[in-house]
Amino acid sequence: MKLLEGKVALITGATRGIGKGIAEVFAAHGAKIAFTFRSSDDAAKKMVEELPTEAIYFKADAASFEDTQRVVDETVKHFGQLDIIVNNAGITKDTLLLRMGVEQWQDVLDTNLNSVFFTTKAAMRTLLKQRSGSIINISSVVGLQGNAGQANYAASKAGIIGFTKSVAREIGSRGIRANVVAPGFIATEMTDQLPEKELASWLETIPLKRAGQAEDVANLCLFLASDMSTYITGQVMNVDGGMVMA
Ligand code: NAP
After folding, report:
1. Phi/psi of residue 136, each to 5°?
2. Which of 31, 45, 54, 79 could form a disulfide with 8 if both were Cys (CB 3.0 to 4.6 A apart)?
3. Average pLDDT score, the chain
4. Ligand 1 neighbour 15 (Cβ under 6 A)
């Protein structure tokens, strides 16, 4: 059974890792895809060829409101609708607070948090007019419990949670849902950068004793994007192998 037949999804930062996994799972379930990236042009072209449904891409900086407005406008113009938004684009610039410069703070907040406001704001009129939509914002378990050396990242990911809950309350009456997905340790290029020792200590804290795959996150996003979850909004759901338990 295909869960997203007839739907259009916009996914930010989808040329690799979790975003790519989400695009693949959504397309396998029938969704048409619009996705963004900032620098990986070749990967974007390859993805469009490989995805089983129609897909378009935009080279657009998630941290720019102008870029984001263009992406949303052109997606709606091209497909005539927008049903699912996944705010996935994110970066890390880790360092201890003592060494953290204003730029390291600002870049991470701009890319990870402001971007979520930008996409949601840019799509608001379309979603309100349609009286439906599912917004899925990718946070992190680090946004729930903090992490030494990631004060900027943790603040951006915690901010996403407050933002999403507010949006869920504000536009739930119009049939639009907003939820947060909080991955734990997922094997992607982002986590590839971690030193061996840190990697081992992360794995130690995971009851399932393995790193997650992009597909693990994508499967939860699929559920939240689909009509299987029409009574679920304002929630934070972890995909973390049991790392953080409520
Ligand atoms: P990744 O492998 O580094 O991929 C990031 C993607 O985002 C790439 O396609 C990248 O493409 C794009 N991107 C980065 N900055 C962008 C910008 N300013 N505008 C548009 N696109 C941008 O990251 P990932 O591990 O898949 O992480 C995806 C999301 O999950 C992030 O929000 C991250 O914080 C979150 N997360 C990841 C983990 C994990 O363990 N991996 C855990 C918790 C949460 P370009 O390089 O071409 O820009």
Report:
1. -125, 120
2. 79
3. 97
4. yes
Beta pairing partners, 87: 137
| Å from CA of 92 to ligand 1 middle | 9
Q: Is 118 in the pocket of ligand 1 (CB under 6 A)?
A: no
Tens-digit pLDDT profile for residues 83-105: 999 999 999 999 999 999 999 99
Kindly tell me the burial class for residue 146, based on how many C-beta atoms sit within 10 Å of its own C-beta (0-12, 13-18, 19 or more).
middle
110 CA → ligand 1 middle, Å: 13
Q: Is the CB of 75 under 6 A from ligand 1?
A: no
pLDDT tens-digit series, residues 137-184: 999 999 999 999 999 999 999 999 999 999 999 999 999 999 999 999
Ligand 1: atom nearest CA of 14 is: 9
Residue ID of nearest Cα to ligand 1 atom 44: 140
User: Is the distance from the beta carbon of residue 90 to the nearest atom of ligand 1 less than 6 Å?
Assistant: yes
Q: Tens digits of per-residue pLDDT, 9-65? A: 999 999 999 999 999 999 999 999 999 999 999 999 999 999 999 999 999 999 999
Q: Hey, which CATH number is domain 8-183+214-235, 3.40.50.970, 3.20.20.370, 3.90.330.10, 3.40.50.720? A: 3.40.50.720
- 200-208's contacts with Cβ under 8 Å and 24+ in sequence apart are 205/243, 206/240, 206/241, 206/242, 206/243, 207/241, 207/242, 207/243, 208/241, 208/242
Distance 112 CA to ligand 1 centre (A): 9
- Sorted by where each begins, the domain ranges of the chain are 8-183+214-235
